[in-house]
Q: What sequence folds into this?
């Protein structure tokens, strides 16, 4: 195990960047991540693909085919998760009627299916994390509700990750709640995610981070190129719901890469990579793939920090294709192209990251930056009142950097001076850490003095 390293922040621009000082991997998180099983992930994908199609508008009165059969199976699975030994999980169904729209010809009843791990800290009862994968699928024609659309990677793989996370974290004692959700209607316009995000917001749930696991099981790209050592994390830079005041602050700080969603993505990378050897999270500096979008965007539109995790290589002969063979090319998102070992590595990383964040103290608030046109940066903040806070972590990265490069662990206080560190050359953030090394999301400056 590595000991905590205390850095004196005296590095000037141009010095070699150091990795952040970290607490050792958490034993419980490591044990939970170790219980992730490739075989269970494969079984979930094969079961969902076996419904033939899970198109949102497909039949609902069959026990073996269509969206209705898939939702019934998921409801049964969530109830089974709640009955695991020591499980604290609470099953739920989020039913709603989607109005007629571009991809929904008439009002249609839909259901998100999930389990919730409730908060054990009364002071944080309304704080929550969300991880979701969409269980609907589609064929070549987005309105084709009859053709086979097994959707093994898109997105049975994401649902498998969500259910597996719930399975291994069922007895976790978290300070905040975690919602593990299989959403519906993603292919028809992010309908289930939009309803869930609006519902949680209306109920006063403070979602501190939402992760959409979408396409997390393919390792073969065009031309038989394989990539199983990386996974992509997408997050928005400028918040969708940015206010005029926030815009002015962003422009003054140059904070286009320090949105709440991007800090959430950085956190998933920083803590998740401890728990899966040989898998690097790539921070993609865009909200999603070019011209496309997933369920996390529905949460962004409600002002909620959200990110998408997705395989590095996509195979377009698989996605959104009716299964068939044309010439020497095989089309269709069938289970044989799902890589359970790769999906297991991604799941382990997310188990570790979610465990750390769900147990972490509250984040510092009202971070202020001063010292412009001087050699020293000065940071001040409102420290969390959370009694579990054992230390604060001052993060910084060079202004040309993507990830946090250095930190300094300090006693709980309300300010610090970074001698010899100019405000122009670095970005800064402050996080709270407990005695076990669980850290809050970093808080970036919200005011310049």
A:
């Amino acid at each position: 195990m590595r000991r905590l390293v205390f850095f004196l922040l005296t590095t000037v621009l141009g010095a070699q960047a150091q990795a952040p000082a970290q607490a050792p991997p958490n034993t419980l998180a490591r044990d939970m991540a170790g219980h992730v099983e490739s075989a269970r992930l494969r079984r979930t994908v094969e079961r969902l693909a076996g419904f033939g199609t899970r198109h949102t508008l497909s039949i609902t009165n069959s026990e073996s085919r269509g969206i209705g059969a898939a939702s019934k199976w998921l409801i049964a699975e969530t109830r089974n998760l709640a009955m695991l030994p020591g499980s604290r999980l609470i099953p739920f169904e989020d039913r709603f009627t989607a109005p007629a729209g571009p991809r929904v010809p008439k009002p249609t009843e839909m259901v998100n299916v999930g389990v919730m791990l409730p908060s054990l800290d009364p002071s944080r009862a309304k704080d929550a994390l969300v991880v979701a994968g969409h269980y609907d699928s589609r064929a070549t024609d987005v309105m084709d509700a009859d053709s086979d659309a097994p959707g093994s990677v898109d997105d049975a793989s994401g649902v498998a990750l969500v259910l597996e996370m719930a399975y291994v974290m069922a007895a976790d004692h978290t300070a905040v709640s975690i919602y593990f959700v299989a959403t519906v209607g993603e292919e028809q316009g992010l309908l289930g995610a939009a309803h869930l995000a609006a519902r949680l917001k209306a109920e006063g749930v403070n979602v501190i981070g939402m992760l959409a696991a979408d396409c997390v099981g393919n390792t073969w790209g065009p031309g038989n190129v394989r990539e199983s050592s990386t996974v992509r994390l997408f997050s928005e830079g400028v918040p969708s719901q940015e206010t005029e005041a926030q815009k002015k602050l962003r422009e003054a700080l140059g904070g286009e890469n320090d949105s709440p969603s991007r800090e959430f993505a950085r956190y998933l990378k920083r803590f998740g990579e401890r728990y899966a050897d040989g898998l690097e999270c790539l921070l993609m500096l865009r909200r999603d793939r070019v011209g496309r979008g997933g369920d996390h965007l529905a949460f962004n539109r409600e002002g909620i920090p959200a990110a998408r995790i997705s395989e590095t290589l996509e195979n377009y002969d698989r996605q959104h294709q009716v299964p068939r063979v044309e010439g020497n090319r095989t089309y269709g998102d069938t289970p044989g192209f799902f890589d359970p070992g790769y999906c297991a590595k991604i799941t382990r990383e997310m188990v570790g990251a979610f465990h750390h964040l769900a147990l972490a103290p509250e984040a510092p608030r009202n971070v202020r930056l001063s010292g412009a046109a001087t050699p020293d940066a000065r940071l001040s903040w409102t420290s969390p009142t959370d009694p579990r806070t054992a230390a604060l972590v001052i993060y910084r990265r060079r202004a040309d950097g993507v990830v946090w490069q250095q930190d300094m662990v300090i006693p709980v206080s309300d300010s610090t001076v970074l001698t010899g560190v100019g405000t122009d050359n670095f970005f800064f953030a402050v996080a709270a850490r407990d005695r076990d090394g669980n850290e809050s999301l970093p808080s970036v400056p919200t005011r310049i003095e």
User: Anything to note?
Assistant: The mean pLDDT is 93. The two ends are 40 Å apart (CA to CA).
